[in-house]
Amino acid sequence: MAEVQSGLDLLVAQKFAMLRGKRVGLVTHPAAVDAQLRTAVDLFAAADGVKLVTIFGPEHGLHGQAQDLISVAGNEAKAVPAAVHSLYGTSAASLRPTVEQLKGIDVLVVDLQDVGSRYYTFQATMRYCLEVALPLGMLVMVLDRPNPLGGNLIEGPALRAGFESFVGAHDISIRHGLTVGELAMLYQQELKLGPGEVRVVPCEGWKRQNYFDATGLPWVLPSPNMPTLDTAIVYPGQCLIEGTNLSEGRGTTRPFEICGAPWLDAGKLASKMNSEKLAGVTFRPAWFRPTFQKHAGKDCGGVQLHVTDRSVFQPVRTSLALLATMREMSGDLFAWRTEVYEFVSKPIAIDLLFGSDRERNKIEAGRPWREIAAAWEPEEQAFDHRRHAAWMYE
After folding, report:
1. Of 220, 245, 275, which residue constitutes the final position of a domain?
2. I need a labelling partner for 316 at 20 to 30 A (CA). Which of 1, 80, 125, 325 fits?
């Protein structure tokens, strides 16, 4: 038996008593499984006394089949027991359920596996659901799941006004150290949404110091490029590479752990990065050939991040240093990503990811990465103070 029980596990153990006689809408995806790898959709459909009315699928689709930035139609879901609506369509408006889609529902249940990073869009989907459902007086029940990165450490700059987006829906640190249930409580508290209610079914047995591999729960990739816990550990920093023309390793078997570009010298890059003496990580020279997305079919030089001590590893600072180094080594070949990103054309992607244009401006001005990161410290302290109000696990 797993050492930790998710909110879904507890709901099943209680025979769905909290939802008996209710008409339910379910926001979910493939990583929402119980300890026996049964999906939330199947469990809700089979639950006595519960009527599953509507299912909502987030980015990547209800079945997790779509790559990033690929719109998903609700009717793409197959062999499901209820109407399916996509919360990742062709416009920013599609990211939220409509009032019409929520009609006939007594309780909106959210069961989504987050990976502990502000950019990861499932918790943004949850926030948008709260914004629509709570003003209608609806009960929103969040089935909690462990933060794969634990809950002790936070890192990264604040999100500034004017830079909100699907990859920055709320002002939280990039590595936020909260569970999805705790985020729901924080959002309700800070957004003052009502008159509906947020009810979190907590995990049982989870401790803040625990990474996912200490829980005993099965890892199911929550999105196509999040195959392992190792990926999730580097992701709070390495997702920043998405905001450039450098490859973040999509199209390889180690997305986000590997990065680079056709013009980079893998050996020189690894040597430069290892000379920075960053805590808890070693950089290995790596050559790779992406099969899709950036530089598909081209040999790229770069590095693979090998995390040697995750208790001291700082992913956001590490990737800030790596980004600045790769930009400097690339010369005129480097470019920021300027096409529409998560339905936003301006600000550009890197500013949405950092949460402001401050970091990009300082990188362009050649400021040392440690100086850039020093500005985050008071912002991290301020968020650490705010997040304690939502803590459910000591």
Report:
1. 220
2. 125
Please indicate, yes or no, whether residues 83 and 60 belong to a single structural domain of this protein: yes
Helices 180-191 and 377-387: crossing angle in degrees, nearest 10, is 90
Whether omega before 195 lies within 30 degrees of 0, making that bond cis, reads yes
Joined together, the tokens standing for residue 298 give 């081209």
Cα–Cα distances in angstroms (integers) from residue 267 to residues 215, 284, 352, in the given order: 37, 8, 31
CATH of the domain at 137: 3.40.50.12170
Q: Are 216 and 335 within one domain?
A: no
Counting the structural domains of the chain, the total is 2
pLDDT in tens, 110-121: 999 999 999 999
Beta bridge partner(s), residue 84: 55
The kind and range of the H/E element at 311 are none
* Same domain membership, residue 178 and residue 70: yes
Tell me which residue of 184, 197, 214, 164 sits closest to 122, measured CA to CA. 184
Question: Does some domain include residue 380?
Answer: no
Q: 81 falls in which pLDDT band (50, 70, 90)?
A: confident
Confirm if 310 and 278 have CB atoms less than 8 A apart. no
119 dihedral zone (left: phi>0; alpha: psi -120 to 50; beta)? alpha
Is the CB of residue 303 less than 8 Å from the CB of residue 258? yes
236: closest CA among 302, 301, 167, 289? 167
Q: In what order do the strands lie in the sheet containing 281-288?
A: 258-261, 300-307, 281-288
Secondary structure class of 391 (helix, strand, coil): coil
Tell me the one-letter amino acid at 17. A
Distance between CA 33 and CA 313 in Å, rounded? 29
Average pLDDT of span 86-92: 95
Q: How many CB atoms lie within 10 A of CB 52?
A: 23
Residue 1's pLDDT band (cuts 50, 70, 90) = very low
| Distance in angstroms (rounded) separating the CA atoms of residues 18 and 50 | 10
- Judge if 251 and 207 occupy the same domain: no
Whole domain around residue 37: which residue ranges? Answer: 7-220
pTM higher than 0.90: yes
β-bridge partners, 284:
304
Domain membership of residue 106 (yes or no) is: yes
Residue 29 · residue 226 · CB < 8 Å: no
Nearest to 324 by CA among 243, 225, 234: 243
